[in-house]
Write a structure and sequence with these properties.
Chain lengths: 143, 143, 143
């Protein structure tokens, strides 16, 4: 008898540039397909404090124009944040956007497929001031 | 011996109108009661990109006045968002609000009951520009 | 043979003052260490509607200056919110901030350790208008 592992923890890497919004839906779906789990939840987690995870309809108007505009409106990219004095860097706005949008997101899957809407994708937002190689954690729990 | 299913995936439907904020606490609690699970987490998920899920004290001041005001302040309802050019629709603000508030929410339950505060309800926010029939996913994992 | 409990539900208490941002990473990690679980997810939940949970790099610039500034910018602390008329209190801004930042957060753990980044801490935000004794729920699910 083969026993099913109820928890599968995976890390995948993405290379980002400043301001990138990356569709990571395929990476998460691929981890489900590589596992023996068919039903459960996928927790997608950014182990860092200048990234964030959410869902959108991944189309150029939102990705290239509207979301950058909204992020600039909500958290001023040009303010000299107190955070800058702590470390001498300039990514305070990125830290605050990550705090607001948050670094964790949970999606149910069923019959081996993420239960997303047809026009709904999982995105990673690079909010830091420089290119990064990012580890994204996907942890599956289920049956 | 009957074995307990550790994952229960359910979908319930709600009919919404533009701007609706719907208390879905009872729907989620009912799915726990219909299941054989007593302890675990309920993941409440909107499979779409113009809805959102959070918690509030569900009282008319917040529901009818304050949250609509805040959503209008955070994301301009009258801007001609770039998203509109992609599809010729006008729900860009709804997409951006869904991105910000997010489409997933996780609540622990114990002894068959959601572990919410006394004055805390789970809400679905209809952020689209028209009435919708919405599928809301509730997935329970536990024991 | 001792069977492993797949769900562990714990509550810890914190004493807060108005505006407190509390690093609760150690409390969550301690619950993992006290459990028999090594891999899974920790759901951190505030059972109330005037608190919130997220992650940040816990340093004084962000904690003492930048996050309070951003919260004041996003949700006006001085507006006479409709919520105040319902109860005769003055914590409408706190309710709206809790709705926006949200009361739930999920972090994966592996080999008995939270999979946070080096400079990433889990925070509880006291958004109410008075000091509180807060119950914070940590529920672990895994193996």
């Amino acid at each position: 008898m083969v026993s099913t592992m109820p928890v599968v923890t995976k890390i995948f890497l993405i290379q980002t540039k400043v301001g990138d919004i990356v569709d990571i839906t395929g990476d998460v779906q691929a981890e489900i397909e590589r596992s023996s789990l068919r039903n459960g939840i996928a927790t997608i987690f950014c182990p860092g404090s200048t990234g964030a995870i959410s869902t959108i309809e991944f189309e150029p108007g939102l990705v290239k124009t509207d979301i950058p505009f909204v992020l600039d409106q909500l958290i001023d990219p040009n303010r000299d944040w107190a955070h800058h004095k702590t470390w001498g860097d300039h990514n305070g706005a990125g830290h605050l956007r990550s705090f607001l949008i948050k670094t964790s997101f949970t999606v149910p899957f069923s019959h081996g497929k993420l239960m997303l809407g047809t026009w709904q994708q999982i995105i990673f937002l690079e909010l830091d001031e420089k290119s990064r190689q990012r580890e994204i954690i996907v942890q599956l729990i289920g049956e």
